[in-house]
Amino acid sequence: MYGSVDLMGYRISASRCLAFCLGITFIMGCYLASLPIQSEKQALPKPIIQQISSKVPNKKRLAILVPFRDRFEELLEFVPHMYGFLNKQNIPFHIFVVQQKDSNRFNRASLINVGFLYTRNDYDYIAMHDVDLLPVNDDLKYDYPASGPFHISSPQTHPKYHYETFIGGILLVKREDYELVDGMSNNYWGWGLEDDEFYVRLKDARLKVTRPANITTGPENTFRHIHDKTYRRRDMRKCFNQREVTRRRDRLTGLHNVQYKLWSTHTVTIDELPITVLNVELLCDKAATPWCQCPEPVKVKKP
Ligand code: UDP
Ligand code: MN
Known about the structure:
The chain has helices at 2-34, 46-55, 72-87, 108-119, 175-180, 194-204, 242-246; strands spanning 62-68, 93-100, 125-129, 133-135, 150-151, 170-174, 223-225, 260-270, 273-282. It has 303 residues and is α/β, with parallel strands linked by helices.
């Protein structure tokens, strides 16, 4: 009798122990699954590096950083177009779509900072590249910008922006230059001005922006801008003290303190052409930049 009770006692404690261990494993598994990929710099999957290097060994590598949210139609055209365009120039490149997955307003500059941190170990220069701006003149060269930032979509040729200090759209920057100016400001939620602030950073660092020479096409036929202003409305709202703060040069934020979580990375192909999608949650410090979410205007009900 005693023996069998002992045996049962042993069995009971063993099965409890098993249940306990399974429980702990389950809880740990849930916890780990809920964690984002560490925000620290990560090495790229090797196959991509090998593929681009084997194309043109010893040439500088270009990371095309595309700040992105809700522009899938444009992306379907962008990827095959860029492959066709850059392969003609023998540029070793890879496209990184940096997708903002949070409920804050779009922040193009912070997404570029995140893309830079992700690629800086494996690439020599970046192109900050709008997804809806397709170069169509083969004289626009995406070579390594050894002597300073190179603005591909110049005010003389951009379909929409023609002021002299404009550097938005498509800009090539080598790694060292981007680091020198601490990347872009993180204060720009919503549309506009982040590129103008970046211009001042470059200027303060005495980096001279150059542009393609001897381009014979103009604003109508150098790029295709796939942008319908009613279908893809620009978020021009200004709230809190956004207008005032974003007009000034930002000396506090940049590459060194962009706050984000990288939730996942995906290798995706479009027409069998590989790209990498980074799923990024941008974190907003509402005390510093409350305009990362503008309150909806209160609708007054008619009686
Ligand atoms: N963008 C995006 N989703 C948005 C807003 C902007 O993906 O909701 C990206 C996209 O790459 C776009 C770029 O940011 O090309 C610049 O925005 P937009 O085209 O509105 O600016 P524009 O230069 O046409 O004034
Ligand atoms: Mn556009």
